[in-house]
Amino acid sequence: MKWVEKWNICRLAVLIVTLVMGTVPVGAAENGGKMPFSDVKEEAFYHDAVTWAYSEGIVAGTGKNTFSPNQKVSRADLVTMLHRYAEKAGMSVSGNSMAMPFSDVTVKSDGTKPYYYDGVAWAFSNAITKGVAETTFGPRVTCTRGQAITFLYNMKGKPAVTTASPFLDCGEGAYYEKAALWAYERDITSGKTRYLFGTWDQVTRAEAVCWLYRLDRNKEEKSIRVLTQAAADTLPRSYGETDLSAEFDYRYVFTHCGDLVKSLGNDPATVLRYYAETGRFHGMQATEDVPAGEKAKIICIDPGHQDHGMSAMEQNGPGSDVRKAKLTTGTSGWATGRDEYMVNLEVSLKLRDELRKRGYTVVMTRETNHVNISNIERAQIANAAGADIFVRMHCNGAETGALHGALTMAPADDNPYLTAGIIKDSQRLAQTLLDHQVRFTGQKKFEVQLVNNMTGINWARMPVTIVEMGYMSNHEEDRYLSSTDGQNKIASGLADGIDAYFAGRS
Ligand SMILES: [Zn+2]
């Protein structure tokens, strides 16, 4: 064997070691701690955390100048990070005499160990991990957020947690339940969305490093924020009577899986079925760690009705004895002959686009006419999306062609299904939207109608209004409602109203 070949074999060995080692902390010392990653921008939520973790030797890059913040973390890499962190933090980092139980974490015959061996031995003997099975650690398996936060929690010795959890997807008694709550209380993470921890999503490198960084900053063993029971009681606790899984997050799906949703015909029922069959959605981006105040407001728009009615009955409100048809067919135009569901969708899509332009996150209950979604299910889409407001779009019809004008509806003060706060905000929302619509369109303005018998209002868990944009039984207004000019003006007026509502203006 010539010298050159030997050299190449050496280089190959180095390359293999580098590839296998992944996030193994190397290199910080040589760079004097200066962070070399071009994919960690100054303004990124993880910038400071990566700078810290790199300079402490807890992580290295995935390449010379890359950190790969969105790359998923393997269980081996996560344990290695924790092991390094524990050492820096002055915790015990040795394994004890317990034999390594995992057949996939072994010392080779030549005595060499995989880079994660000591970390796994430490984690096992300190009850930080039990493996994915009795004799399997799963080093190459990517780590879920539920697993990762449990590792951190166990590393800290399972501190006591005090209060109710803000997360819908951290079920009572689940192995990650207390860990997620602890992380919330210690301000290590605020979850993936407002109501969801994102238990089954794979943890990204950016997220893992942020968690360690905050754990390190919040060294004192005390809670930084606590969700009071009263606040917890205002959170949506259930998804009603349907089989909608608590872990299904419409907000993720509709904002991050647009193409998939489109390929499923934009039909929430189909999307839900797909979810039930496949278990989850892939390709979601990290939305972790945007401060709550800076999270875009979420508007759920429900274009009323669809191309057919649903005569089966459903509860008029949670716990109600009254049952109403799942969905009625709506009215139709005396001049245009068009069906209400069409007009509702047309204006709703314009409103959606206008709101997105203004920076809102918009979740639609439907984007086509041929769907199958009851009124309860529409409210549940808004609930699951964690929407800040729920705007239900309709047109009116009357026995006489003389009536014309716009009105909105809101729950009355004595609505038994909604909290006083939601009722008050719904009434303000209804009034503000109505004022701004007619300011823009010049239509006649009716009063806000207070109603307690609307299923889609009663099941909502946020401020909600029904907008009756105008009367399709009035020839002139019917034509206006189907005209481009009329629809644009209504959408602009309602968007202004939504701006005003959130700004606390009238
Ligand atoms: Zn209607």
Write up what this structure looks like.
The longest helix is centred in the C-terminal third of the chain and has 22 residues, at 420-441. The strands form two sheets. The protein has a six-stranded mixed β-sheet with strand order 4-1-5-8-6-7, sandwiched between helices. It has a two-stranded antiparallel sheet with strand order 2-3. It is 39% helix and 8% strand. The chain has 506 residues and is α/β, with parallel strands linked by helices. The protein contains 17 helices and eight strands. Helix 12 crosses helix 17. The protein folds into two domains: 72-99 and 110-232, no CATH class; 296-503, Aminopeptidase (3-Layer(aba) Sandwich), CATH 3.40.630. The structure holds zinc ion. Zinc ion (ZN) binds at residues 304-305, 330, 340, 394.
Distance between the termini: 84 Å
Q: Unreliable runs, pLDDT <50, ≥5 residues?
A: 1-31, 236-248, 278-294
- Sum up the overall morphology in one term: elongated
| Overall structural domain count | 2
Category from helices, strands and their pairing: alpha/beta
Percent in strands: 5-15%
Largest sheet: 6 strands, mixed
Which fold name is given in CATH as the topology of the largest domain? Aminopeptidase
Helix content: 25-40%
Mean pLDDT: 81
- Radius of gyration, taken over Cα atoms and rounded to an integer in Å: 28 Å
